[in-house]
Structures are given as structure tokens and as C-alpha cells.
Write a structure and sequence with these properties.
29% helix; alpha+beta; 8 strands; globular
């Protein structure tokens, strides 16, 4: 069982109802539709820290190369595009589909923080399509491509229990 599998199993067994919490956060004027746990498909690898020896320098170079290749594959658009503004940290967030569009929420390190922290909103008018790419990532996560009206795109890994979210998004913004 890989780390992603362990994380998914742990979150599934915990008591918080992410959908109910997000419905309450969005309120009646922004009707909640569906939610799913998401991770960027092209999250930034590596970090800061001191460079003490040749191995660390080599690892930084490998991380930079991996970030560049993964970024080109899973994130597209100009530097000022919608996709470029989305966070690429490798942190689990929850995407919520609502009447107004999409929003991203942080439920904390263990996915149980209530209330969650609001991260960002993308209005429905800014989304062109949401498509299941047919690819699966570690742990069975579905790789879903969000394409925006400015021509940019961003791929998210949607946790295996997020099929209702994927379906609702694809119905609202078909390819």
C-alpha cells in the first residue's frame, strides 16, 4: 500500500462530512452541488533548504527538471492565466462545485479542520470544460483536466471517491 493509498484510506475513515461543511460555508445563495479531494497532477517537488553537498545540488537539479516536465504536461497557459494562478503545492485540498462555479478549500493537514480555509474561487464563466483524461495516478486517483476560457488548463488528481464531482463538473462544462 503506497502513501496515497494510506492517505485515502485514512481520510475515508474519519468522521468529517466535507460535503456538509462546504454546503454550510457556501450558503444558500451559492448552492452546493458536489465536492472531491484533489491534488495537483503537477505539484512542485523539492523545497528550500541549504545546499551542503553535491548530492543535495544534484537532487535540486532533478527536482527542477521534474517540475518543468510535469508542469508542461499538466499545466498550460500564459504566466498570467487562470491555470498559472492555481496552487501547485502537493497538498490535499477539496474542490467544491456550486451554482457560482468552483472553489478550493483547505481542511488542514489531516483533512479534518472545520471550518476549512478558503483558498480560491473560479467563476463558472471562466471554465470551458472538465474532462476525465482516462489516466489514473497512484492509488487510483482520476486525472481530470480543467480547461479555462483563457485557453489555459490544469490537471488535478481527484481522489477515488470523487466520481460524483467529476460527473457533475463534466455535465456542467462538457468538452
Amino acid at each position: 500500500m503506497g502513501l496515497f493509498d494510506k492517505l485515502t484510506a485514512k481520510l475515508a475513515s474519519m468522521g468529517i462530512d466535507h460535503a456538509a461543511v462546504l454546503a454550510g460555508q457556501l450558503g444558500p445563495e451559492d448552492a452546493f452541488v458536489a465536492t472531491a479531494g484533489v491534488l495537483p497532477a503537477a505539484y512542485g517537488r523539492g523545497g528550500g533548504g541549504r545546499l551542503l553537498n553535491g548530492t543535495q545540488i544534484a537532487m535540486k537539479a532533478v527536482d527542477a527538471a521534474t517540475n518543468a516536465v510535469s508542469g508542461k504536461k499538466h499545466v498550460g497557459g500564459d504566466a498570467d492565466s487562470i491555470a498559472a494562478a492555481l496552487p501547485r503545492e502537493g497538498e490535499l485540498r477539496y474542490a467544491a462545485l456550486s451554482a457560482r462555479g468552483l472553489s478550493l478549500w483547505d481542511f488542514g493537514l489531516n483533512g479534518q479542520q472545520d471550518p476549512p480555509t478558503f483558498v480560491l474561487r473560479i467563476t463558472g464563466e471562466q471554465v470551458r470544460s472538465v474532462v476525465d483524461t482516462g489516466k489514473r495516478a497512484q492509488g487510483g486517483a482520476v486525472v481530470v483536466r480543467f480547461t479555462f476560457t483563457d485557453g489555459s488548463f490544469f490537471d488535478y488528481r481527484v481522489l477515488p471517491n470523487g466520481q460524483q464531482f467529476i460527473t457533475a463538473c463534466a455535465e456542467r462544462w462538457p468538452a
